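Lay summary

Proteins are chains of building blocks that fold into shapes. Our project writes down both the chain and a compact code for its shape. Here are two examples, one after the other.
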Amino acid sequence: MPAAADSDFVQSLEYNHFTNPHYNVDFKGAGELRINAEGTTYTFTGTRRGSLGSKSGEMKFHAEDIRNVEVNHAIVRFTTGLGKSGRNKVPFVFHLPDERTAHSIAALLPDHKDETHTEAQDFAARLDEIAGPADGGLSLTKIIIGLNVLVFVIMGLLGAGWIQTESMLPYILYGANNGAATTDGEWWRLLTSMFMHFGILHLALNMWALYAAGGFLERILGPRSFLFTYVGAGLAGGFASIAWYGDRVWSAGASGAVFGVFGALLGYVLRQKQAIPRSVYQSMLKSSLSFAGYNILFGLVRPGIDNAAHLGGLAGGFVFAWILALPLNREVRARQSGRRLQLGLVALVLLAATGVATTPRFDYTVSDAMTWNDVNRPFITQEVELQTEQQKTLANLGFPEQATALTQLIETRLIPFYEEWTRSLAPLRLNPEKQTAQARDSLTKILAMKLDNYRQLVADLRAQDPAAISHYEAAEAQVVAAITQMQSGR
């Protein structure tokens, strides 16, 4: 309430509140505002922030020190050149018991407004008129964040890991983006991969960036245009990732779409610059370019970062915002929004069709490759042990006295091992037109060659042929050549 003419006005307040992220950089805890009877000085007292213990202090403001007073619910803030607030160029903030008291106190403070502040307020008012208040409840951005968190929990329960990735299998099975898997008819991976993350930090960073910029973009574009932009940027990032990395990586995360949000801010600013105050669009440009530049440079020096998806998403968001951007005018939007949405849908269809048509294909299926690896892995491990034992036996071989040991090793262990390996390959149901089935045929022939070589070596050893080992080594050289040819894909 206003002070009496012959006494100072005193109001209790708080400089920070556990329910609100806005806080005062000069003071902490509780304090007071004292306005002298003449209304010329404004003295804030409280505990100095950064001090040890409860060191109290005060800041005295004159009318010229207080500018751009704002009220947000029960919070009052203003800009000033004094104290840490002035040095850090952040508002001086304090919390009142309720919104009514906040407005009453704000009315007692000087009413000086900077031109840039007035422009920003006018812009905010026009945006509120078109899109509603910024804290108006549920939004598409919040729904997308919620879906990302939900998918993260589901993937964690499936064994993907919480703090960091513990198993890639859930990603491979349920939706990560990979050239071979996605282009083998599983194009839905371009969408599902946008909601998967490799650990809690990956999720938190992407959702923080989306929350910071997505809500604002959604308000200036409108929810439907924002959805086109977000999905379009994510698809563009997915296609770019496949084009650059092929089948070498499994990509997941919302970062391509999030980069698209910042690319869309750039696109909107350049398309509708006349509709945005200079102070606002300069801030948007700075934040967008800083976000994109920092993260791209970080991706260049740190392995495992999918910069192709980032750049693809950035470009996709820019293009979609350029197509969909409309001025902050209710009448113009009513006339043109339908047409712009049609253009956005056409752009989305063209992006999907072009990506599907031009993305490189791969001569195997992931399911076949997984089956192939599962069958062969234990045999490959056991073969290393058997070949090591064979080499030791050969090294100690004194013909013909010790030939019996080598013969016994071949007949009791090596031949049964390669026969079992051959039998395990026969029932595999593989696509006959793909590389994995061709590899199965090649490996079957190689195993047959090794079995023939072992049987011939046993016969030569029993016949006490002095050239038995040299004949075997020559035959094995042909096996090595066949393995090399199979591995090269010829």
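And here is the second example, written the same way.
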Amino acid sequence: MSRIRYSAVIALAALVVALGGGNATGKGENAAAPVAKGAAAAPTEQSLVTLEKSAYEAWKTRDAKFWDTFLSDRFVGYGSSGRLDKASATREYTGAECTVSSYALSDEEVRPLGTDVALLTYRTTVDATCGGQRVPSNTRAAGIYVREGNEWKGVFHAEAPIVDPKAAPATPAGMKETGPMVEARAADRDDATAALMAAEKAIWEAWKDHDASRLGDLTADEISFINIFGVFYPTKADVIRDWTGPGCDIESISVTDGVATMLSPTLGILTHTGAADGTCFGQQVGSVWGTSVYVKDGDAWKWAFGINLPARRQGG
């Protein structure tokens, strides 16, 4: 799928993305069920990788028609200026003046998020320029696919450039902090968004308090996470160890601008903006564009996967 174009390296100030991430299937209601007769078979890793590569090829060739059938009407993701829906994603993936010399995917992993939803995480290596500027050559990416009829369609995509946190400047040249995203709908606008926002705030509070026990209770049995520096944590133990490790001293947190995209009554994607008042490794933390996948376990929403990006855009 078309990559997110960033023209500057990521700020260490956004180290707060030690929050959010993983792919998992919750217990109980969201457990996998038999596939209905005549429905599309569960995707293999190779089939999802093939689909993802076809999207990169469409980005390379600026094939605007491709996205109409490839993307779900429920698509949500993040691009160079913030949250995307299907229409804005199509414009982003085809409207930029990009010259793509090569692209490659590696380290692919596929995990089910439910009966009709699958997550693909991978690493990209790209040689490309957009708008005359080089795009990050290495990223960690996540794509979520949903079964619609007999087809699997892209319903989420985002990429985190792989950078060295110690080498990232606190304020990248040519970048500035953003306010609320222009196209974002109101936070807590419906019951689903309110429920997932409450669950997300609990995760951030537990992160602030370095509370491994609470984080364990708030997350699904199997999780993984891509942080703002493009680091991939593939297991629950890895994620919680990262979130509760030394380095961050946080006084308060803020989770706003939430929008829930429900894929089923027991599975939803929450896109939001997160921020914290405090420091990580001596640097003031900044805002992030966060994405969290939640699965329902009984009456509780459990955090199952996440990827966070710097809440920044180009500007003067």
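What can we say about the second shape? The helical segments are 45-61, 66-70, 86-95, 191-208, 212-218, 236-244.
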